[in-house]
Design a protein that fits this description.
Radius of gyration: 32 Å
Number of helices: 4
Protein name: Biopolymer transporter ExbD
Keywords: Cell membrane, Membrane, Transmembrane, Transmembrane helix
Structural class: alpha+beta
Strand content: 15-25%
Distance between the termini: 101 Å
Shape: elongated
Organism: Methanobacterium subterraneum
Oligomer: single chain
Pfam families: ExbD
GO molecular function: transmembrane transporter activity
Strand order of the largest sheet: 3-2-6-5
Length: 130
């Protein structure tokens, strides 16, 4: 009996390689778990919440400049202070930054400020100098 090598070759050429994904996923998750367990994480000691640290600033400025492209409206405790806008920027008092709340909506070109208790809207924002 003769061995048909041509049909065997055709069968090998037509056979496509198959990769079993289950062991591959198992190995990837095992490596991931190993890396997570052996990693060391540190808690950030810097307690900044996006606010500037006054002790690290240069000079003794009472106001910080907040520029917003296309700034049209500034509201402080419900009072419109848009007249203080110069070159799409407003100067905001440091106490407002530390104790108050500032909501910036760049798409609308608005800034809404809630000043700390006892601070007038005229003191909370100012016309930018320079």
């Amino acid at each position: 009996m003769a061995i048909d090598t041509n049909s065997y070759r055709m069968k090998l050429r037509n056979r496509q390689a198959r990769v079993n994904l289950v062991p591959l996923i198992d190995v990837i998750f095992t490596i991931l778990i190993f890396l997570m367990v052996t990693s060391s994480f540190q808690v950030a000691t810097d307690s900044s919440a996006g606010k500037p640290d006054v002790s690290q600033s240069n000079g003794n400025s009472e106001y910080y400049l907040i520029p917003v492209a296309g700034l049209k409206t500034v509201t402080v405790n419900g009072v419109d202070m848009s007249s203080d806008i110069r070159n799409s920027a407003i100067a905001v008092h440091t106490r407002v930054i530390d104790e108050g709340e500032i909501i910036i909506k760049p798409k609308d070109g608005t800034i809404t400020i809630t000043a700390p208790a006892g601070m007038s809207p005229e003191k909370a924002v100012s016309i930018p100098q320079g």
